[in-house]
Predict the structure of DUF3054 domain-containing protein.
Amino acid sequence: MIPSTSRTAGRALAVTALADLVCVLVFVTIGRSSHEEGITLTGLLTTGWPFWLGVAGGYAGVVAFRLAPASLPGAAMVLIKTLVIGMILRSVVQHDGTPFSFVMVATVFLALTLAGWRTAARFALLRRMRTASPNSPHALPQQTRTGSTTSSGKNTDPAGPHEASRPESLRS
């Protein structure tokens, strides 16, 4: 039997990877549309595969460096690997070239979307935790004047009083 923390971590990894793959799909779709190329399954796959392999490389880095997949450092790892691997494959295998303007547009768009959905998810979770009832598993622990948590559990995490109560996938 798989421990629940492993299942939760695996689920977080899968959800974040899917969200990142969707970001690349949106990038590819907008790019093909702006260049008046057809939005077909074949066209999307032909244009997108180098960058989707880059996302996979990014997640290899996330796992290797034990980064939280939904964290901003996780987004940075995925962004760098997606751009480097995607641009190399696009240039070497597809012979499509990588003009500076394309690299810049890809960098800005993917940085905004990969970090953007993570930031939005973090704010949504924090809002949910703040508005949850005190007995809810999503509620923030109550603090004492010394900064440790009340009898519901002590927090010795140096990252902060609420870090231990946050889901692993959103820890910084």
The helical segments are 4-34, 41-64, 72-92, 100-131. The CA atoms of residues 145 and 151 lie 13 Å apart.
